């Protein structure tokens, strides 16, 4: 055996495998990494700027309309104050530290539920995806709960866990659990059977097969679930914060509306949108990093 | 000296919703000599891949026995390397990482692993492509990486299932030549499945022809040329071998067609 390895490793004088033009990669295989001369780089920056402008045009238009309609009196400015007034109210909220406090409270709950969901649900999903008996046992239950809206269960969470943080975080966890769980299961189940066969042919046992093939193959799909869960974690938290909370953006929006501080209400809504946008962008970037090898 | 001995091997599959089992192979007898290049041709669906899976130890035969170096085959192992038509590279690993995969399975220590992977990448002419991911490589390059991966853990037997079928003609011919040269250098035993008669004659020292399903070995033909210099495919001998194998296969392909029509109708 050792002998044999020696011969295989012996230096090879002439390489039989010269690369020919016809097995060079297709041009479209890797468009981004092509070296480009500097003048086209300038053009590319120009193009990117233009596309960014193009994409933000609709948003700019909406903001402009928001400013103009109340000012011209087409819309009652009591119910929809002009954007500048909302921004001013938001600025005051920031300066007084009130906004920071609410954002902190909301983010804390969202992240706690989100992280707990990741930590607990990914292992569960891997187990369900990998062990058929576990899947057979749990699938009917999962189907039942999956079709029960998280929002419908909010009163139940509140009833059992009270009005405190536990109920809110559990509620976020529950809502985040589904996209992560379903994606993890499908990530494990949809691994290309040929890759499994290939790894098995190299003598890998079930455990190593799981570690070296199933898990890395499933990572991009799992990450898609995580990204969806990230969006949910902020969306559903608002519901929870509208009942029995003393801080948080949901509370701010609700309380502002109740006390007729309409600009504050809109400032809260804007903040939540921006927060969601930022969080999603962060997760999309992370997702890209983890799935560079995926070609689809 | 025989490397692989196959005696009376049959394989049946249970097909869902059908009462009687489905016979893919029956009564296969085949000896593969140590260090030889054996090509295997047969009509599509005759059980070639099934036979390769059995030799690889990925499945167990329903009847009969398979031996490797006199020991019964009862599972996959690093003494055999499999190369698939669809490359089966791990898309999240670079070319180098893919070659290292088998070395990790063999528990080769880290530093040696990288060196060895690099050596085999160079052997297949892809020294400059170590950090490319499979999707950044052409089909021919991917198959080269797959071959390098199988060579790197140094199996004694290379099992290849139509490895060049998905490549264009020019890439295929250059890979055929490379494979022959690697075989001459390393002295591996190669079992090579193909549905191309030309490919079978060009590569094989012996060509085994299978019957239509359930597959058996119909005949084994020794292929020998006085000289391999020049355009082998233009030699009269080459044409004779090809015609002979074509005649043998024609009846089987016709039988396979009939079988298909019957099972559909
Ligand atoms: N796992 C399986 N279950 C049921 N039938 C199978 C299975 N694998 C192969 N077969 C059948 O066995 C026959 C031989 O298949 P295969 O070995 O792939 O043929 P070939 O490689 O010669 O084209 C085919 O009819 C195929 O449908
Ligand atoms: Mg096949």
From TrEMBL, chain A:
It holds the Pfam family BPD_transp_1. It is a multi-pass membrane protein. It is found in: Cell membrane. Its main location: membrane. Residues 1-37 are annotated as: Disordered. Keywords: Cell membrane, Membrane, Transmembrane, Transmembrane helix, Transport. It comes from the Bacteria. GO terms for biological process: transmembrane transport. Belongs to the binding-protein-dependent transport system permease family. This is ABC transporter permease.
UniProtKB/TrEMBL annotation, chain B:
Keywords: ATP-binding, Nucleotide-binding, Transport. The keyword Cytoplasm does not apply. SMART domains: AAA. Residues 4-237 form the ABC transporter domain. InterPro entries: AAA+_ATPase (IPR003593), ABC_transporter-like_ATP-bd (IPR003439), ABC_transporter-like_CS (IPR017871), ABC_transporter_ATP-bind (IPR050166), P-loop_NTPase (IPR027417). Coiled coil: none annotated. GO terms for molecular function: ATP binding; ATP hydrolysis activity. It holds the Pfam family ABC_tran. It comes from the Bacteria. Signal peptide: none annotated. This is ABC transporter ATP-binding protein.
């Amino acid at each position: 055996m050792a002998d044999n390895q020696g011969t295989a490793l012996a230096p090879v004088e002439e390489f039989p495998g010269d690369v020919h033009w016809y097995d060079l990669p297709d041009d479209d295989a890797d468009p981004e990494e092509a070296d480009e001369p500097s003048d086209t780089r300038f053009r590319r920056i120009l193009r990117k700027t233009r596309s960014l402008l193009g994409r933000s045009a609709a948003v700019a238009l909406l903001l402009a309309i928001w400013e103009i309609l109340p000012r011209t009196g087409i819309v009652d400015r009591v119910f929809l104050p002009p954007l500048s007034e909302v921004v001013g109210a938001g600025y005051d909220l920031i300066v007084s530290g009130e906004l920071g406090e609410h954002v902190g409270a909301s983010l804390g709950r969202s992240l706690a539920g989100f992280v707990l969901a990741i930590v607990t649900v990914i292992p569960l999903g891997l187990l369900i995806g990998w062990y058929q008996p576990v899947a057979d046992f749990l699938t009917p239950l999962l189907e039942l709960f999956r079709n029960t809206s998280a929002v419908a269960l909010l009163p139940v969470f509140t009833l059992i866990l009270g009005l405190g943080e536990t109920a809110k975080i559990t509620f976020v966890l529950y809502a985040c659990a589904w996209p992560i769980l379903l994606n993890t299961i499908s990530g494990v189940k949809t691994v290309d059977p040929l890759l499994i066969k290939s790894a098995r042919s190299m003598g890998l046992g079930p455990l190593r097969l799981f570690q070296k093939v199933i898990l890395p193959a499933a990572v991009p799909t799992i990450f898609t679930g995580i990204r969806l869960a990230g969006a949910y974690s902020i969306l559903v938290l608002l519901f929870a914060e509208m009942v029995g909370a003393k801080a948080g953006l949901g509370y701010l929006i609700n309380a502002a509306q109740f006390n007729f501080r309409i600009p504050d209400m809109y400032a809260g809504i804007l903040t939540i949108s921006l927060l969601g946008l930022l969080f999603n962008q962060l997760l999309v970037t992370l997702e890209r990093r983890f799935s560079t090898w995926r070609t689809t | 000296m025989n490397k692989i001995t196959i005696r009376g091997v049959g394989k049946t599959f249970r097909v869902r919703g059908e009462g009687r089992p489905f016979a893919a192979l029956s009564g296969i007898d085949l000896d593969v000599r140590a260090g030889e290049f054996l090509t295997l041709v047969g009509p599509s669906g005759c059980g070639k891949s099934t036979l390769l899976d059995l030799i690889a130890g990925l499945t167990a035969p329903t009847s009969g026995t398979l031996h490797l170096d006199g020991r019964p085959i009862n599972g996959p192992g690093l003494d055999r390397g499999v190369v698939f038509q669809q490359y089966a590279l791990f898309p999240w690993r670079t070319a180098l990482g893919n070659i290292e995969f088998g070395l990790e399975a063999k528990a080769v220590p880290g530093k040696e692993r990288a060196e060895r992977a690099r050596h085999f990448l160079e052997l297949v002419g892809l020294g400059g492509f170590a950090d490319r991911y499979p999707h950044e490589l052409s089909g021919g390059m991917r198959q080269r990486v797959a071959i390098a991966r199988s060579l790197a853990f140094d199996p004694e037997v290379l099992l290849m299932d139509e490895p060049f079928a998905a490549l264009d003609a020019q890439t295929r011919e250059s890979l055929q030549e490379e494979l022959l040269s690697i075989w001459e250098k390393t002295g591996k035993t190669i079992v090579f499945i193909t549905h191309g008669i030309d490919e079978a004659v060009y590569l094989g020292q012996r060509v085994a022809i299978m019957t239509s399903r359930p597959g058996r070995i119909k005949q084994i033909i020794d292929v020998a040329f006085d000289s391999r210099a020049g355009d082998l495919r233009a030699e009269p001998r080459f044409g004779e071998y090809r015609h002979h194998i074509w005649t043998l296969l024609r009846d089987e392909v016709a039988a396979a067609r009939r079988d298909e029509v019957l099972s559909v109708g």
